[in-house]
């Protein structure tokens, strides 16, 4: 019986399937390719594959996936260094770390370390202030309101979402928060090197 997991990275998978329509590969496309592969008997997926685009403009991606395996890793031995045919391209299988994703700290809201290992300051994921998200409406100037202003600024009603626009704490773009999956960091959260390089780029433009 399968009682363990093995973890893999599939290299240089086509990301853009049709340039005219900008059709992009999806996890279910990978799953179908696995099911059609001669290696399918060893590709017993333990969860959906994760697609990580190599760069914002790249037509290639890497795919992370894990399978149910024996304690001896017999299936892994059959898969490592083999190739899978994905939309006409031969893609090599490599072993991967058990937890390849880059963690997002829930204290300072920076990518790259788990919450329990954080040595940074507490930050609000909405506005970046020195308070928790639960305290945002009571601590943030925009949401606290100002009755003495002309005209008066009314406070955000209790329980309502913050109506103000803030830059994402990670990528510094408007329109989403650091915890929002719209952030490009989420698209690359399986690529720690990308996150490190992106933080350096963001700091250079501040």
Detailed description of the structure:
This protein is of the alpha+beta class and 206 residues long. A hairpin with a 2-residue loop joins strand 6 (83-86) and strand 7 (89-95). The chain is built from 6 helices and 7 strands, in the order βββαββαββαααα. The protein has helices spanning 27-35, 74-79, 136-139, 141-144, 184-187, 192-204, and strands at residues 4-14, 16-18, 23-24, 50-53, 60-69, 83-86, 89-95. It has a 5-stranded antiparallel beta sheet. A two-stranded antiparallel sheet has the order 2-3. It comes from Ephemerocybe angulata.
Give a brief description.
This protein has 206 residues and is an alpha+beta fold. The protein has helices at residues 27-35, 74-79, 136-139, 141-144, 184-187, 192-204; strands spanning 4-14, 16-18, 23-24, 50-53, 60-69, 83-86, 89-95. It comes from Ephemerocybe angulata.
Summary keywords:
single chain; 206 residues; alpha+beta; five-stranded antiparallel sheet; two-stranded antiparallel ribbon; 6 helices; 19% helix; 20% strand; elongated; Gag-like protein
Strand content: 15-25%
Distance between the termini: 54 Å
Residue-averaged pLDDT:
86
Tell me the radius of gyration.
Answer: 22 Å
Biggest sheet strand line-up = 4-5-1-7-6
The low-confidence runs, each spanning 5 or more residues with pLDDT under 50, are: none
> In oligomeric terms, what are we looking at?
single chain
Shape: elongated
Number of H- or I-type helical stretches: 6
Order of SSEs? EEEHEEHEEHHHH
- Report the sheet with the most strands, covering strand number, pairing sense and barrel closure: 5 strands, antiparallel
| Structural class computed from helices and strand pairing | alpha+beta
Helix content: 10-25%
Number of strands: 7
Protein name: Gag-like protein
